[in-house]
Every structure is written in C-alpha cells, then in structure tokens.
Design goal:
Two copies of one chain form a homodimer. Chain A is α/β, with parallel strands linked by helices. Chain A has two domains: about 5-20 and about 235-350, Lyase, Ornithine Decarboxylase, Chain A, domain 1 (Beta Barrel), CATH 2.40.37; about 40-230, Alpha-Beta Barrel (TIM Barrel), CATH 3.20.20.10. Helices cover about 30% and strands about 25% of the residues of chain A. In chain A, the strands form two sheets. In chain A, strands 1, 10, 11, 12, 13, 14, 15, 16 and 17 form a nine-stranded mixed β-sheet that branches. The radius of gyration of chain A is 22 Å and the shape is elongated. The interface between A and B is large, with 64 and 64 residues.
Chain lengths: ~350, ~350
C-alpha cells in the first residue's frame, strides 16, 4: 500500500498539516481523566485547534464548556453549537460589546477582567443583552501576563463587579507558572478572606495551561482547568514533560525541495507555516521524524533551512518528511486547513472556523 | 472630527491592519521610478500584500508582471486577472504540476529551478499544458538560501532545461545579499561564457529584495527586479535604510487592555497578529507611534507586552495606539483583512485573496 505521506504529497501536496484523530481522541481522554480524577471541570482552550468539530469532540468527552481568547473565536464556536463559553481576556470597546451582547443570547458566556474600565464596558454588554454576564477577576500569580497583581486589587475589582448591575461575580481566573501553586494559594486565601467579609463567594477558580495539568490539584479550591495545546501537543509540550512523541497528533508534512551543499537542505515550509516561536530552551524549530539529527535551523518565509551536519542519513530532494513543530497553536492559526487521518487512512479535510480571526 | 483611530476602534475594533492607500501609491511609484531609471523591469513580489487589488495597482503603475512564491498565490492572482506570473520557487510533485499546467492556460507563467528533479517535474507540467514553460535557474550568490551554488552547476542545469521538451531556458534568478554584487557579477559572467559556448542566451537576469533597490544597477545585465516589502515597508526596511516612517503604509491599530504595574502594559495584539520575526538587529517587535520609547518587548499569542520603563508619557488602559511591525509580510499572511484608508478617511475593507495559502 502507498504510505500515507506519499499519498498526501501526491493528492494534497505539501506542506500539509496532518492530524491523527486516533491520537487526538487519546489526548482528549487523557486530559478529561486527569480532570475527572481531581473533580475539576475541564474547560479546554480552543485557541490551539480553532475547530468546531474538535471542540465538540472535547465536549462529548466530558468537557463542561470551552475557553476562547477573543470574540471572533467565540462567535465561530457559538455558531457551531457550543453553548458554554468563557473568554479569558480583557474585552474593551463599543464594537466588541455589541458582539458580546449578541453572543450572550446564543450561549452561556463568561469573561475575564483585570481592571475597572473593562468592568464598565462589560456592563454595557449586559445592558444590551438584557441579562446577566458572568465575570471572573483575572489574577497575576507570577507569570506577569495580564491580571491584577495583588489580592487587594482583586478584592476591590470583585466588589465592583458584584455591585455593577448586569454583572455577576463568578470567581477568579489565573494562569500560574508551573511552580506557582504556593503564590497562587496565598493569593486565593487572601481574596477569599477579604470577600467573605462582604458576603461574596468565590464560586469558580479557573486555572490553565497544558504543563499545569502535571500538577493538577495543587491549587486550593480549583474548580476548572483550561488547557489548549494538550489536544495536539508539540515539541514544547515534550520538553515540558507533558507529552511523548506518540502524543503529538499534528505533524507538518513537507518536501525537501533543494539541497545546496552536503550539509544544507531546504523544506517547502518556512516561517509562514511554522511561525518562529521557540520556548523551553529548544534548539531549532522542529523535530523531523525521519531525520532526528537534522536541525530545522532557521526560516525564510517559505523556506525551512536544515542543518544536516550531524546527519548520517541525509534527506534528498523530493523526500517528504514529517515535522513536529515547536509550538502548534500559531501554526493552525496561520494555516487553518487540516488533513484528518486515522493511522494510514485519510478521513477528511477541514478548514478550522476560527483561524486568523483578528478580533 | 473623530480621529481615524478612534473611529476604527469604535466601528471595526482592534487589532486592525490599517493601510494608507496614499502612502501605498507613493511607495509603488517610488519603486517603479527606481526601476525605470535603470531600464530594469519591475516584477513586484506579491507575498507581502497577497491582494489582487494591490497587485493591479502595481501593474497599472508600470510593473511588467508579478512574482509569487507558491502555486496558491499564483492561482489567486491569475483568477484576479494578473497574466504574467513568475513563481520564484522550486516546485515539485504531481499535485503541483497539475495546478501549474492549469495556470499555464490562464497566464504567461515562468518558474525557478535549482536542481534536476524539479526540471523533470516541470517538464510534466509543460506536457500537461500542451505548451512551453519558461524556466530560470535559481543561483545562490551568497545568501545561502535556495539556488545552485556554482556557475558550473548553473550551466549544467541551464543546458538540461534547454534540452528538455516543453521547457524554455529564460535566464538566471538570484537574491543576492545587499553587498553581493561582486560575487553575483563573477557568477553571471562565468555562466554567460559557459552558455555562449553552446549557443544559449541569458535573456532574463532577475534579482530581488527591497533593500537591493538601494543598489539597483550594480548587477551586470540585470533585466528585472522583484521587491515585495517596499509596497508597505516596515521596521526592518527602516533599519535597512530603504524607508522612512512616513513610507510605512501599514500600521497595526491596537488597544491597551491592561497595565499590570507602572512599567508594564498589554496590547490586544500578540504573536498571532505580529508574528515574532526580528532582523536587522532590531530591539523589540514594533515601533509605537504614540510612545516611541515604549518597547514591544515580548508576546503571548494574544498579548503584546510593553516595557514602559523608558516612557515618560505612559499609555493607559483603553488607549488605542498605532504600531509599525518589524516584518510586515507574515502579518498580512496571518490576518488577511485590511482596512484601506486615505489620510483620515476609511475607503474600504478587503480580504486579501492569497492569505495563508499552504501550497
């Protein structure tokens, strides 16, 4: 039988983003089981796959709802039938509030806020929609991303939310660093004590991140978890100790289109496919299954430059290779077209609905 | 009157990619004038803008044809009515040859090749199309990208092209480094001499790159030039000395959605909008027009992290700012939605046809 990669190169062409649904199903089940074991609701972040089909697979496996990072993602998901959506992002502005209000009439919406202006804007969305909007206070417990930086600020903001007509204070959202449980727990305890004085409950404590699934349960009172990358995994998740190579569900199939000397090779996928994210101290931009000693050393927009110095078995022009990228999320965002397979069988080609949404 | 950026934030929402057509027209005219002054044909690379509308503006200003980097780009352009297309890339595989043959019946197509396998594949496209395909030998004259590495290889490959039924040897294509004229000229002279012995002419010498427009005319016998970025320009083109800030036609409008301490700020555009390209020794990922001392220091996927340590006038939550990115080409590829303006007037919103094409 013709190997899958030759069939994909011949029928579909390279570069191609090939997703093994058998691996995806196992990855979804693994996360759901981790959450179930700790009694924590699973609310996967769809920023990784951006696909209604895959979000529904997560829901059908037991996810309570989904997480989105922008209105456009939530619109695509609500349109596709997902009905419990948390947008873990500060939303601002008239145009976004109108869209949020429309979403509130299609799905159970909750959102994050880390400052008073966002809360004031959210109140206008609730007024437009004519019913309540659930709001979580985003807390920075060490990652230095968004979020209020002190428990005092969190308490003040929670009170403001609770006092704002149309808004319901739901709880706290955070994205702690992998070693951030102690800081997060102190933060949560202070906020809980401060809010108890005014009779406010923290009903939801939402944490996130695929690597944080490794320490699930270390956050006091965590009620739900948002993981994105775990559905596909990538080289960073291997480096983080979360995933094995067999758990990397998405591979970039690409063709060697030029060699240029004994130690160089060129793939037909560059920064416009792989993007240039690095992290976790990784060397190079991808792992080539057929040539693990080859380094994906740098990119032009449509060229992937291979350093073959450490390769005994070197690829030749015309060879098709499979690459696991460093970070899968921006790749799907650029490309938006996936080839779904099971083992050696092509199942379906899909466009992901929320790819490249600006707002 | 309401300032443009407030109107865009209110009506369209941020982040938004805003292109000033007055600046675009001046940028197109500048490149055309540079080429005209040297008697070199202008064949702009559409990988930067990916838009039929903008390609037609380039053609109407005097461009001989356009350059594409992949079949999907050429298909979008041919569909839109562009009829002289050079694909400056090694194309391989059955699926691509069928599409190339279809393109040959819509537009005058030429392509690059740097190895014998590509030439053999191109012959199958010519056979399928039923007429001749024009082929240029891609030569590496110092950038270490694709291209044959020696004049001897170029001569051998040119002879193979000329001897292959259905293929026409057109000449040489290169993308020299900015200081690469001497090496390129020696390379060209050797190939010219070698081919003269067998009666083969070099009709086309195609060079490329926006920074190389600064030394246009230094390449012996150059007949055409492929520049991409010059239509929009970016921080890299400013660093390269090609463009002024006023010649940067595309700005990313983005909102400050969080502050997080006195020296930090967060934009609602991260690596999924800006991408993470750097180059030309640039510090940070963008220049903020309103806060030139602010550094766009790093990204999460949907967060742009500002270092405000050197800012006296610091942006506050809700402020809309305009950012010139380091490298504009991958940004348009991800986003694909442009707001066209002239000065303070919104003209039109367009989707760019060839955005995110995989193959």
């Amino acid at each position: 039988m013709e190997p899958l990669k030759m069939r994909i190169a011949r029928e579909i062409g390279t570069p191609a983003l090939v997703v093994d649904l058998d691996v995806v199903e196992r990855n979804i089940a693994k996360v759901q089981a981790l959450c179930d074991a700790k009694g924590i609701a699973n609310r996967p972040h769809i920023k990784t796959h951006k696909s209604v089909l895959l979000a529904k697979m997560q829901r059908d496996a037991g996810a309570k709802g989904i997480t989105c990072q922008k209105i456009g993602e939530a619109e695509a998901m609500a349109e596709g039938g997902l009905d419990d959506i948390f947008i873990s992002y500060n939303l601002l502005g008239e145009e976004k509030m109108a869209r949020l209000a429309a979403l509130m009439n299609k799905a159970r919406m909750s959102v994050a806020a880390d400052n008073p202006l966002v809360v004031e804007h959210l109140a206008t969305a609730a007024a437009l929609a004519g019913h309540d909007l659930h709001v979580l206070v985003e807390c920075d417990t060490g990652r230095k991303r968004a979020g209020v930086e002190t428990s005092a600020e969190a308490i003040t903001l929670a009170k403001k939310i609770a006092a704002t007509p149309g808004l319901v204070f739901d709880g706290l959202m955070m994205y702690p660093p992998e070693d951030g449980a102690a800081i997060s727990n102190a933060f949560i305890a202070e906020v809980r004590a401060g809010l108890r004085e005014v009779g406010l409950d923290i009903r939801v404590i939402s944490s996130g991140g695929t690597p944080n699934l490794l320490n699930l349960g270390s956050l006091d009172g965590q009620t739900e978890h948002r993981a994105g990358t775990s559905i596909f995994n990538d080289r960073m998740m291997m480096a983080a100790g979360f995933a094995s190579m067999e758990e990397c569900a998405l591979r970039i199939y690409t063709t060697v289109v030029s060699r240029g000397g004994p130690e160089r090779g060129i793939l037909d996928a560059g920064s416009k496919v792989f993007t240039t994210d690095t992290g976790w101290g990784l060397k190079g931009y991808g792992h080539i299954l057929e040539h693990p000693e080859a380094e994906v050393a740098r990119f032009a927009e449509e060229h992937g430059f291979l350093d073959l110095a450490r390769c005994n078995d070197r690829p030749k022009v015309g060879d098709v290779v499979r690459v696991i990228p460093n970070h899968i999320c921006p790749v799907v965002n650029v490309v938006g077209a996936l080839v779904l397979v099971r083992g050696e069988e092509i199942v379906e080609r899909i466009d992901v609905e929320a790819r490249g949404r600006l707002t």
